[in-house]
């Protein structure tokens, strides 16, 4: 393989990571409007809703990429946990403390060191930092999941996916719409472990025309059909998220915002993340990464950690979703936060120890 080919072979993964980072910012910019605008039959609400709905694949994409890039490789347990947990826990703990100090100074929340310690234990300290707790838990499953992934066949994967769909998707549907709880104890397959394994599956699954590999058969479609399937999953998943939220809010919840379709562990969001992953893997690796794409991908974790502070700062400067129409304000603020976040992370990295907290 040539040097150029080697350098661009995972360009799609960096582009997908960058997309997920932008989506996270878009959710946190558009979400308050979608949830707070009282009249859901207005353009302002629908624009906010569409921005949020089309960005819901954000955090699950990060989980898929982690599974794709980690569960498909062999690492010794000790060094793996030490390296990965250090990369997450040091910056995670640092920014948790920053956000708690910020919350205390701004709103006396948390009010005491005891409250801060309890919040640190229970999580998530600040609304976006729940991802730290999630990714640490997934990393701890690596020594158990990697041997299984190494020998798993298509049938094995689909068995796991069926269990995950039952414990996560079906459970949420029954509880959200009928208030029913499932008595079956299958917590092992709930939450995001299914997405973690799904990343490994989609990474290793041969594309149409490729030979069987890793115990998996190629997709039973042409590349063109698989490409359109990916696009269809994104469009249908996003549409169900947007229109489902409107339907559930206006029909079932008396006009009050209904969160079910915004949940990450739903079939509609699952369809989107599969679509984005397949689309990126097939179509986003055909040209080298631009320098700005490399910089943004390298800074993505730091941008995730700092972007809420940056949003608050821009808000104090008068730039927020309520300052003008959402059709104009949301994309502008998302771009401002993303660019400022990249600049902030690059500045932090040049400080002593800055690379360890971003």
Structural description of this entry:
With 358 residues, this protein is mostly helical. The protein has one domain (3-356). 71% of the residues lie in helices and 0% in strands. It contains 13 helices and no strands. Helix 2 packs parallel to helix 12 (291-316), helix 5 (77-107) runs antiparallel to helix 7 (130-151) and helix 5 packs parallel to helix 12. The protein is globular, with a radius of gyration of 21 Å. 35% of the residues are buried.
Task: Please specify the SSE layout and strand pairing.
Layout: H1 3-8, H2 11-36, H3 43-54, H4 58-70, H5 77-107, H6 113-122, H7 130-151, H8 154-178, H9 193-204, H10 223-252, H11 267-283, H12 291-316, H13 326-350
Gap from first CA to last CA: 32 Å
Count, helices: 13
For the record, the count of structural domains works out to 1
How would you state the average pLDDT, rounded? 93
**What kind of oligomer do you see?**
single chain
Helix-residue proportion: over 70%
Structural class: mainly alpha
Residue share in β-strands: under 5%
- Spans with pLDDT under 50 lasting ≥5 residues? 1-8
Query: What is the count of β-strands?
Result: 0
SSE order = HHHHHHHHHHHHH
Rounded Rg? 21 Å
Describe the largest sheet: none
Overall geometry: globular
Can you give keywords for this protein?
358 residues; mainly alpha; 13 helices; globular; disordered N terminus
Short description:
The chain is mainly alpha-helical.
